[in-house]
Design a protein that fits this description.
It is an enzyme of class 1 (oxidoreductase). Keywords: Dioxygenase, Iron, Metal-binding, Oxidoreductase. Residues 212-314 form the Fe2OG dioxygenase domain. It catalyses: gibberellin A1 + 2-oxoglutarate + O2 = gibberellin A8 + succinate + CO2. By secondary structure, this protein is an alpha+beta fold. It has one domain: Sandwich (Jelly Rolls). It is 33% helix and 18% strand. The longest helix has 30 residues, at 169-198.
């Protein structure tokens, strides 16, 4: 089989891909490269521009006490809630995360991921949070052609267990700044979305309850160039198991796609903006008003792609609850949800998610 490792820094994604392909070809009713179940990834996909929302009125120091400021904030909140209901995704500008900081984050990510594969996999960097491919994959279609550091925010912020950045001291400083800025933005957006459903009742400064720097995550992603593209996906279709995700996608290299209706659409990269999407927990809390939408990342045959994602997660023992009764979902905690997702993926190779927690009818 061909080797596409491309150097000591690359994870053995090609080896995994071809091992899974051989496994499939050994099974009854097997697929081949000419009749593969991922043929649909090469179909033309329309490019879209997500709802664009200027959130400067939420992120600036203005206290919003004047009638004009209050009206601007109300209009902004309504636009955010509408996008969460109709798309499950939206883009924000004037978000409070400096562009130069995000550019520095991109450079530091490149330095990090250029380290030798063995160093990334075994040296305990960033709380031993390095991941590559899909360990639970049973077919090439389930393999994500990517590598990442999925870092608990407590380690990044320095408030919990000391996070080992090795010799990458500038990465440590930049990562802390990015995590802090994204955390502030995510908290603001979550409260705005909650208040849109609660009417006059305020959601509170700590909404969602149980979400703080000990429970949230920052994920540094890299999608290597994939010579077998589009035979492999950068990240397989999924929904996020959190309340809210804030994403800085690559400003030049596209690849993010989401499900709109019954079709995939490609998200156009727009410099200076961040992508925000609703997670499963917010869909449950909102009684399905807000949509946690399936999305994926496509590979690129020639160019690598980087992104940074912030995940707003509660503690494992936090009950998710609902904004109104009767609830469409039975009572569950985030820990129960995570365990069930992991069990389903291990058993079937697929996440089931919220349907497991529907209330009995």
């Amino acid at each position: 089989m061909p080797a596409f490792a491309g150097g000591a820094a690359e994870p053995p994604l090609a080896d995994s891909y071809y091992a899974l392909l051989r496994r499939g070809n050994d099974d009854e009713g097997a697929y081949t490269t000419s009749t593969a179940p991922w043929d649909d990834v090469s179909l033309p996909v329309a490019e879209c521009e997500l709802p664009m929302i200027d959130v400067g009125c939420l992120t600036t120091a203005d206290d919003g006490s004047s009638p004009e400021a209050e009206a601007e904030r109300a209009a902004c909140a309504a636009a955010i809630a509408r996008a969460a209901e109709e798309w499950g995704f939206f883009q924000v500008r004037n978000h409070g995360v400096p562009q130069e900081l995000l550019e520095e984050m991109r450079r530091e990510q490149a330095r990090l991921f250029r380290l030798p594969f063995e160093t990334k996999a075994t040296a305990g960097l960033l709380n031993d949070s390095y991941r590559w491919g899909t360990p639970t994959a049973t077919s090439p279609r389930q393999l994500s052609w990517s590598e990442a550091f999925h870092v608990p925010l407590a380690g990044v912020s320095g408030s919990g267990t000391t996070c080992d950045f090795g010799d990458l001291t500038t990465l440590r400083d930049v990562t802390r700044e990015v995590a802090g800025a994204m955390s502030k933005l995510a908290g603001t957006l979550a409260r705005v979305l909650a208040e849109a459903l609660l009417g006059r009742r305020p959601a509170g400064e700590r909404f969602p309850e149980g979400c703080d720097e000990t429970t949230c995550f920052l994920r540094l992603n890299r999608y290597p160039a994939c010579p077998i593209s589009p035979g492999a996906l950068g990240l397989v279709p999924h929904t996020d198991s959190d309340f809210l995700t804030v994403l800085c996608q690559d400003q030049q290299v596209g690849g993010l796609q989401l499900m709109k209706g019954d079709s995939w659409v490609a998200v156009k990269p727009i410099p200076g903006t961040l992508v925000v999407n609703i997670g499963d927990l917010f869909q449950a809390w909102s009684n399905n008003r807000y949509k946690s939408v399936e999305h994926k990342v496509m590979t690129n045959a020639r160019t690598e792609r980087y992104s940074v994602a912030y995940f707003l997660c509660p503690s494992y023992d936090s009950p998710i609850g609902t904004c109104e009764e009767p609830s469409l979902y039975r009572t569950f905690t985030f820990g129960e949800y995570r365990r069930k997702v992991q069990e389903d993926v291990k058993r079937t190779g697929k996440k089931v998610g919220l349907p497991n927690f529907l209330a009995q009818t």
